[in-house]
Design brief:
Blueprint: E1 2-6, H1 12-21, E2 26-29, E3 42-45, E4 61-64, H2 70-73, E5 84-85, H3 90-108, H4 111-119, E6 135-139, H5 143-154, E7 159-164, E8 174-177, H6 182-186, E9 191-194, H7 208-212, E10 218-222, H8 231-239, E11 243-248, E12 268-270, H9 280-295
Parallel strand pairs: 1-2, 1-3, 3-4, 4-5, 6-7, 6-9, 7-8, 9-10, 10-11, 11-12
Helix pairs in contact: 1-9, 3-5
This protein binds glyoxylic acid.
Glyoxylic acid is lined by residues 66-68, 278.
Length: 310
């Protein structure tokens, strides 16, 4: 079986990882190896140049080397008949759990306040918040959202709710679904976590109206996609106190431009899209399993629904 790897990332660790987990495959790295396109059966891709995948005539499957397929789906010539698999990898999930749990605890325990007090040499204690009372809401209850919810429940948070496009009943969670229930969901989120995929339906979903439904002084954590946010509305909410603080890992424009207002805001915590990075060794194991499913004539898990966009 012949694979092509198309990604701006360094191919070296992928060569090693795929040799380990998929020794029966021949890997060709686009831009490094000579590639006879017609002999390629599977493509492993991250942000390939639009139009490129359509020039491989014999693809049996495309693997997206990340959880979000939004960038790939912008390619209008993407071969629709070829199954597309998104990455669901235990290490990718645990990275996301760590990132979100970190910021939930950070805000829950006022660490942003103590950091400011340290700069002011101010020794002032504030009552500890109670995990039983703090209400955390997760937008997006897919693989990542469910893992985050589970971790927060294990930490003793008892008021966790989740919102998803279609109704999902998950143990221990208050579930909300669809546009009709978005306001009710938001109105009880002291800490709002966004893990939604970027689709036509979620673009700009965090805007002036939705932010106004949050309890005043709420916190916002964005580890989904930047364009689900209207930046000006988020900035206004952070400036007028509707939001207390935000932790942002993803942005409308990446890298975030040097002169962006977010850099200057005391109540904004920026990370450069590192909430959860794909790890070649772990991901190759998952991809190898899916490839063997394809070869055995079985349908692999985590196929993307092109109509839904995730
Ligand atoms: C990263 O953003 C991913 O989609 O995995």
């Amino acid at each position: 079986m012949n694979l092509v790897f198309i990604s701006p990332d360094d191919a070296t660790p992928w060569r090693k990882a795929l040799r380990r987990h998929l020794p029966e495959a021949d890997l060709f790295v686009w831009g490094e190896d000579e590639v006879d396109k017609d002999t390629i059966n599977y493509a492993l891709v991250w942000k390939p140049e639009p139009g490129l995948l359509a020039t491989f005539a014999n693809l049996k499957g495309i693997f997206n080397l990340g959880a979000g397929v939004d960038a790939l789906l912008q390619d209008v010539s993407l071969p629709k008949a070829v199954p597309l698999v998104r990455l669901v990898d235990p290490l990718l999930s645990s990275g996301m759990v760590e990132y979100v749990v970190h910021w939930v605890l950070h805000f829950h325990r006022d660490m942003h306040v103590y950091a400011r007090q340290q700069r002011e040499r101010n020794w002032a204690q504030h009552a500890n918040a109670n995990t039983k009372k703090r209400r955390v809401g997760i937008l997006g209850l897919g693989e990542l959202g469910q893992n985050v919810a589970h971790a927060l429940l294990m930490l003793g948070f008892e008021n966790i709710s989740g919102w998803s496009r279609t109704a999902k009943e998950l143990p221990g969670l208050n579930s909300f679904a669809g546009d009709d229930q978005l306001e009710a969901f938001l109105s009880q989120c002291d800490i709002l976590v966004n893990l939604l995929p970027l689709t036509k339906a979620t673009r700009g979903i965090i805007n002036k109206a939705s932010l106004s439904h949050l309890p005043s002084g709420a916190y916002f954590i964005n580890a989904g996609r930047g364009p689900t946010i209207i930046d000006d509305d988020l900035i206004a909410a952070l400036n007028d106190g509707q939001l207390n603080a935000a932790a942002l890992d993803v942005f409308n424009e990446e890298p975030l431009s040097n002169d962006h207002l977010y850099w200057t805001m005391d109540n904004v915590f920026i990370t450069p899209h590192i909430a959860s990075l794909t790890t070649p060794m772990s991901s190759s194991e998952v991809i190898a399993e899916a490839l063997r499913d394809f070869e055995d004539g079985n349908t692999p898990d985590n196929l993307v629904d092109l109509n839904q966009g995730y």
